[in-house]
Each structure stands twice: as structure tokens, then as C-alpha cells.
Specification:
It contains two helices and seven strands. It is of the alpha+beta class. Strands 1-7-6-3-4 form a five-stranded mixed β-sheet, with no helix packed on it. A two-stranded antiparallel sheet has the order 2-5. The longest helix is centred in the middle third of the chain and has 9 residues.
Length: about 70
């Protein structure tokens, strides 16, 4: 499983998807969340601006990342 290290207290879901280059743009990130393709901690996530914190696990399109504190 890949890890993403936080530089602040949290990161928004759509920003993480874009930073990891799992999607090409913020607009596409919003669409994949709306299309019910993203899971956080094993549960379907529909909040585009969900604040991800230390320990959260995000899954999308066969990829998985764990958010960790710096």
C-alpha cells in the first residue's frame, strides 16, 4: 500500500486524488467521487471535500493509499 504524508492537519479528498495523479484534474476528481467510485476506510465516500487525516485509507480504481502524519 502506498503512503501519503500530510504536511498539514488534513487534505481534502479531491485534492489528494489530483496530487497522486490518480485523476488528471480537479474536475475529474469531483466526477469520480460523484460517480461513487471512491472509498475511504472501506466505505463509499460521496463528500468531495472530505477532510482526510492520519490513518485514513483511500481506494480508487484498484489503487490504495494510507494518509500518514509527517
Amino acid at each position: 500500500m502506498e503512503e501519503f504524508t500530510l504536511t498539514q492537519d488534513y487534505i481534502e479528498l479531491i485534492r489528494l486524488l489530483k496530487l497522486l495523479q490518480w485523476v488528471p484534474s480537479g474536475g475529474i476528481a469531483k466526477m469520480v467521487v460523484e460517480d461513487e467510485l471512491v472509498f475511504v476506510n472501506g466505505e463509499l465516500e460521496l463528500r468531495k471535500r472530505r477532510k482526510l487525516v492520519n490513518g485514513d485509507v483511500v481506494e480508487f480504481d484498484g489503487m490504495e493509499v494510507k494518509v500518514v502524519s509527517a
